[in-house]
Amino acid sequence: MYKKLLIGFGIFIIILLWLIVSICPDWLWFENLRYSSVFWTMLLSKFGFGAAVWLVFIIILFINLYAANRLSKGSGPGMAFTADGGYFAKLGLSGKSSSLLFIAFILLISLVIASKGSYQWDMFLRYLFQQPFGNTDPIFAKDIGFYVFSLPFYLFIQNGLLVLFILVGLLTMGWYLKEGALQVIGDFTQVEGRPISVPKVTIALKAKKHLIFLAGIVVLLLAWGYHLKIYKLLYSTQGPAFGASYTDVHIRIWAFWILIVFSLGLAVVFFLNVFKPRAKVIMIGAGVWIGAVVVFATFLPTLVQKLVVKPNELAKESPYIAYNIDYTRKAYNLNKIQEVDFPVSDTLSAGDIEEHNVTIQNIRIWDERPLLQTYRQIQSIRLYYDFNNVDVDRYLIDNQLRQVTLAARELALNQLPPQANTWVNRHLIYTHGYG
Q1: Phi and psi (nearest 5°) for 346?
Q2: By C-alpha distance, which of 314, 322, 342, 139 is closest to 232?
Q3: Helix (H), strand (E) at residue 350
Q4: What angle do CA 323, 324, 328 make, to 5 degrees?
Q5: Tell me: the pLDDT tens digits for 413-428?
Q6: In a shared domain, residues 219 and 303
Q7: What pTM did the predictor assign?
Q8: How many domains are contained in the chain?
C-alpha cells in the first residue's frame, strides 16, 4: 500500500513540474500582455480537443476489445484454442501479465494520439467558427471558406479514423492472439531438398468475422478519403500553376469517383462476408480494388498527362493558369487597384534641390557589391572574419535621419588555419565577430 502511494505521489509531482515548466511561463507572458483570455481559450481548446480524441479512441478500442474477449472465449476446444495465455504463453507471459502489457501499451498509444490531436486545436476552432468568404471556386462552385476551414478538418477526421481503425484492427488481432483465438502453428523451417515450411495461421470463425467487419470499415473510410481528395485537387501542384490542372479536372475527378464506387463495392463484399466468410471472394474483391487503384489513380492520369497535355500544354492549361492569376489577384485585392496618372515634370531647379535637400542627402551613391568586397579586403589579414552581405539602414546622425550601409562582421571558422583550429579557439576565443 505504501509503495503504491509513493508511486502515485511521484507521478503527481512529475505532472505538477510539467505544468509549471510548460504552462506557467506562457500564462505569465499572456497575463503581462493582458491577453489572458486568449491563453485560456488556447489551453482549454488544446485539452478539450485532445481529450475528445482520446475518448473516441478509448471507446472504439474498448468496444472492439470487449467483443474480442467475448468472442475468443467461445472458440471451442475442437480447434485447440485456449482460454488463457494463447501465443503469449509461449513467450513465458501469463494471461494476467499479457493483459497488463496490453493495457499499458494501449494507454501509451492513446496518450500519444491525444497529444497529436491537441495540436490541431486551432483547426478545430477555425472549423467551428468559420465564416463564408463570399467567393466560390471555379471548379466545384463551393465557397472558398470550405477549403480554408472545413476541408482540413474533414481530412483530419478521415485520416484520424483511418489510423484509429487500423490500430484497432491490429490490437484486436493481438488480443485474439493473446487469447488463442488466433494461432500461428509451426515455424519457418528449411530442410535441404524440400521447400520452405511456413507456419499455419488458424483463426476462430467469430474472430474472423470480427476482423472482416473492421476491414469493411477501413475500406469505407478509404472511400470517404477519395471523396475528399476530389476537393483537395484544388491544392494540386501537378500542373504548371498551383491548383487543379487539366488532368486533375478531366481525369482525376472521375477517377476518384470510380474508386469511390469500387471502394464501396469492396466494403459491401466485406460486410456480406461477415455472415459467411469466404476467403476466395474477399481475395478477388481486394484484387479488383487494388487493380482499380493502380489503373485509375496512377496509370491513367500519367498516360493522359504525357499523351494529351504535354504535346499541347499551353492550350490545355491556359484556363487553369487564368484561374490561378484571377484568384491570386482577388486574394490580395489586386483586382481593386485603381490607376491614377501622376504628373511628372522633367525640369529641376536650384530651388527644387534646396526644398528637397533631405531627399538629396539620402541618395545612395555606394553600390553594396563593391562595398562588400572592400570590407572583405580590409579584413583580409584576419582570415577568420567575413562579411556575408551589406544592408541599408537609417540612423540619426547630428539629429538628421541619414541612410547608411551596414555589414555585420561574422566568424568563418572554416577559414581558420590548421594550427589555430583548436577546441579552445572554436569555443572560447573565436565566438563572435565583434561588430
Answers
A1: -95, 10
A2: 139
A3: helix 350-355
A4: 115
A5: 777 777 777 777 777 7
A6: no
A7: 0.74
A8: 3
In angstroms, the CA 283 to CA 44 distance is: 47
d(CA 245, CA 233): 8
Dist CA 424 CA 363 (whole Å): 46
Same domain, 231 and 278: no
Q: How far apart are CA 172 and CA 113, in angstroms?
A: 18
Q: Considering 290, 317, 332, which residue would you say is the last residue of a domain?
A: 332
Q: What percent of the chain has pLDDT over 70?
A: 86
Compute the distance between CA of residue 136 and CA of residue 132 in angstroms, rounded to an integer.
10
Q: Which residues pair with 379 in a beta bridge?
A: none
| 28 located within any domain | yes
Grid cell 535441404 in the structure block, residue: 192
Judged on CB neighbours under 10 Å (0-12, 13-18, 19+), 258 is middle
* CA–CA separation, 431 and 435 (whole Å): 12
- For the record, the C-alpha cell of 51 comes out as 481529450
Q: Regarding predicted confidence, which is higher, 197 or 183?
A: 183
How far is it, in rounded angstroms, from Cα 176 to Cα 204?
Answer: 9
Residue 173, amino acid: M
Phi, psi of 129 (to 5 degrees): -115, 35
CA-CA distance, 175 to 181, in Å (whole number)?
9
| Residues 17 and 166 grouped into a single domain | yes
Q: What is the mean pLDDT of the chain?
A: 83
Q: Kindly state the cell numbers that stand for 328.
A: 491570386
Phi first, then psi: what are they for 411, rounded to 5°?
-80, 145
One-character DSSP codes across 65-120: HHHHHHHHHTS-GGGT--SS-HHHHHTT--HHHHHHHHHHHHHHHHHHHHHHHHTT
